[in-house]
Amino acid sequence: MATKRPDGIKDYTGPAGGWGALKAVAISLKAQQIVTSGAQTLLKSNQPDGFDCPSCAWPDPKHTSSFEFCENGAKAVAWESTAKKIGAKFFAEHSVSDIWKESDHWIEDQGRVTEPLRYNAATDHYEVVGWDEAIAEIGAGLAAVPDADQAEFYTSGRCSNEAAFLFQLFVRLYGTNNFPDCSNMCHEATSVGLPKSIGIGKGTVSLEDFDHTDLILSFGHNPGTNHPRMMATLREVSKRGGKIIVFNPLKERSLERFESPQSVVEMATGNSTPIASTYLQVKVGGDAAAIKGIAKALVALDDAARSSNAAGAAAAAPTLDHDFIAEHTAGIEAYIADLRETTWEAIERGSGLSRTDLEGVAQIYAVSKATIVCYGMGITQQRTGTSNVQQIANLLLLRGNMGRPGAGICPLRGHSNVQGDRTVGITERPKPAFLDRMRDVFGFEPPRKDGHSVVESIAAMRDGKAKAIVCLGGNLAIASSDPQACAEGFRNMDLAVHITTKLNRTHLLMAKATYVLPCLGRTEADEQAGVPQSVTVEDSMSMVHASRGFLKPPGANVKSEIWIVGQIAKATLKGKGAIDWDAFIGNYDLIRDKIEAVFPDFADYNRRVREPGGFHLTNSAALRVWNTDTKKANFLCTPTLEDDSTNGDPDVLRLTTLRAHDQYNTTVYSLDDRYRGVFGRRDILFMNERDIARMGFVEGDLVDIATALDFARADRVVQKLTIVRYALPEGCCASYYPETQPLIALEDHDPQSFTPSYKSVPVTIRPTGADLGSEFAVARAGVVGRSKHVPA
Length: 792
Ligand SMILES: Nc1nc2c(c(=O)[nH]1)N[C@H]1C(S)=C(S)[C@@H](COP(=O)(O)OP(=O)(O)OC[C@H]3O[C@@H](n4cnc5c(=O)[nH]c(N)nc54)[C@H](O)[C@@H]3O)O[C@H]1N2
Ligand SMILES: Nc1nc2c(c(=O)[nH]1)N[C@H]1C(S)=C(S)[C@@H](COP(=O)(O)OP(=O)(O)OC[C@H]3O[C@@H](n4cnc5c(=O)[nH]c(N)nc54)[C@H](O)[C@@H]3O)O[C@H]1N2
Ligand SMILES: [Mo]
Hints:
Layout: E1 16-17, H1 18-31, H2 35-43, H3 71-80, E2 85-86, H4 88-93, H5 96-100, H6 104-109, E3 112-113, E4 117-120, E5 125-128, H7 131-143, E6 151-155, H8 161-174, H9 188-198, H10 209-212, E7 215-219, H11 223-226, H12 230-239, E8 243-247, H13 253-256, E9 257-259, H14 264-269, E10 273-274, E11 278-280, H15 287-310, H16 322-328, E12 329-330, H17 332-341, H18 344-351, H19 355-367, E13 371-375, H20 377-380, H21 385-398, E14 408-411, H22 418-423, H23 432-442, H24 454-462, E15 468-472, H25 476-479, H26 483-492, E16 495-500, E17 513-518, E18 527-528, E19 531-532, E20 535-538, E21 543-547, H27 561-573, H28 581-586, H29 588-598, H30 605-608, E22 615-616, E23 633-634, E24 653-658, E25 663-664, E26 667-668, E27 684-687, H31 689-694, E28 702-707, E29 717-725, E30 732-736, E31 761-767, E32 787-788
Parallel strand pairs: 1-9, 2-3, 6-15, 7-8, 7-13, 8-11, 12-23, 13-14, 15-16, 16-17, 24-30, 27-29
Antiparallel strand pairs: 4-5, 4-17, 9-10, 18-19, 20-21, 21-22, 24-31, 25-26, 27-30, 28-29, 28-31, 29-32
Helix pairs in contact: 1-3, 7-27, 8-27, 9-21, 15-18, 15-19, 15-21, 24-26
Bound molecules: ligand MGD (2 copies) and molybdenum atom.
């Protein structure tokens, strides 16, 4: 049909990458008014003597001599190193209520915050305050909280190992383990699920493994947008004949075809490289069923091989690695029994894929010599996130694909240092052995009680159980589910402190006392006591390396995160713990010495991190050392196959929430989503053509969507979305994060890891009705219309 498509919607038929990517970079540099300095800055990202790109956690290339082009890394760098700044004049001209009325994009796009700010409730303006005054007041405010467990300390994964380590030292001396962290909304299912399976909560592969793999199974990630530097690796694997099997409900352009902006030939001839050899459009939330299907088929192939061998026919190779299973694993019997009991009918219904397709994958897997499974948010942000991750581990263990070259598990981490922050102690459920090390090294008894994750801290804030919050980066109230709970929570606080590069909407939710403290970004030179300092970060593959910015900071009053954390610690603790915070602030090597003292893996930290490319942290599972309860890798079976939140009702669709191509989490660079054919808007509901017709709609209709789940506070609605047809399975739909946040109840999360189920929201759809109104409507002005959820 050649019907006219809605405004701003086009069919995107080209490959990902290519000239479009180069053009997008030029546009970003221009928008941030940094065309020449920006280009020089980009050449320093992810180089041995440069800064770590603040965008994603994909590792640096092996040959760091050449600049690795990345469109979205370039956007992140341009956004941070913008020439735009805000200070006293801006805040005198704009009240907080006025700023609130602007879009999220507008708020961040005003530029870098250059002065410490304190909110004045009488005038409704932020006002510039001196550092000494701000720090003294914050210290007094934190010290006044009656019980340390009534304070929350959030981190977003851009902060360095050094800042994170100092932050957790301060907070544990203060007396709590309340460390809500962006990881709680992201790869928590990995951190909780994998230790039980393989004894470590991280991926086991290194970048070199991709040179030796012949099969990649990719579940629920969109690298062309979120890990663009991974595209070069996938392209190499595809070019040398490796197979890539994709499981994703949406057809994502970059997983189909990629044109490398670094390849002269591809750019000149327009001959792009195919990525997926097989593309399976699994149902939203259907991955566990799909994985079980592959495993079941693999076991059946193994059975067949055995019986043909027993019958004396031509020798058939077993498809399971029986030696590995016997030597290294526990729990195979129960796991296989569960697979045998699981019917194909249930697998097909749960996954939306056919038995034939899944058996086909098993046949390819059965002959692969080395397999890597990569996965992202499509797997973790589910009610079954933890068990999804464990299913992936099971599948790899069946063929011994752990701890040998070219094989392993590869969770694609989010923020550039989210993994490092966890490694150095940002965790609300600390292990006793780590706390013992903290005690021995620093001579104090750290709190032992588990603290709050994101969901638990927002609940505590909403319910009046928390009094103060300090946010080391991020945009917690917008990134979290349930904006209303977040807004109520922040407004309940006696004290809120935000350490940040830019202003965002969380900073506009006023506590009794609220401060915004401006900090340096990765790209900027950080000098302490006249000496340039480096920080360190850990990537998705456990490589730790240094990062040193070189740009001039945006203002004399913009301080390093380490300096700010150290000053708050001094003012709050007043000598408690006898830590020489000034020494740490003056020389980051001294912080690294203490990290090394607490974590022996970091032995010789200061020397090793100065070597180009840094060093690799020991990964026990990669060495086939299993730090689990059984001292083996555990097959863990999950009897439940399907997330049955739609209750079998065909009018309830499963909504997944996505990042657009021009966005970094809650930061929206522009309203385009090029590879999905969306330009200049985000108020979109992607639906399957047949669902559109079956429900009596046509493309372009304006609809409201409501959650079908009945949590304590029902009536969660997002209004005025435009239906756009898209290649995704029937029964599923998709829209953009964070606009859809009002649909997700705080209580709707994976019970094991507390990861919100952002990727599986059961929704009903109806023609747009009367405006329901909500204060959060303004947050998305011109973007999604209005949303409302009513307190019980
Ligand atoms: N440019 C840019 N880079 C980023 C970010 C960014 O926002 N912008 N964010 C960073 C962060 S913090 C993170 S965590 C990562 C996120 O990186 P990704 O994990 O790639 O994140 P998403 O875009 O949320 O979703 C990924 C994919 O999951 C698919 N999906 C949705 N539901 C399901 C499902 O049920 N099953 C399966 N198999 N697939 C599903 C979607 O179609 C989409 O292609 O990227 C990091 N890098
Ligand atoms: N519906 C839905 N919700 C989601 C997701 C989803 O897929 N769907 N994804 C979830 C995921 S994976 C994540 S990780 C979270 C993200 O949650 P957050 O990490 O809290 O959010 P960001 O948008 O990355 O934070 C951006 C802000 O960080 C600040 N910032 C930027 N750079 C720096 C810096 O160098 N230092 C400091 N101190 N501050 C800085 C700026 O103020 C900027 O506005 O969102 C989660 N929420
Ligand atoms: Mo993330």
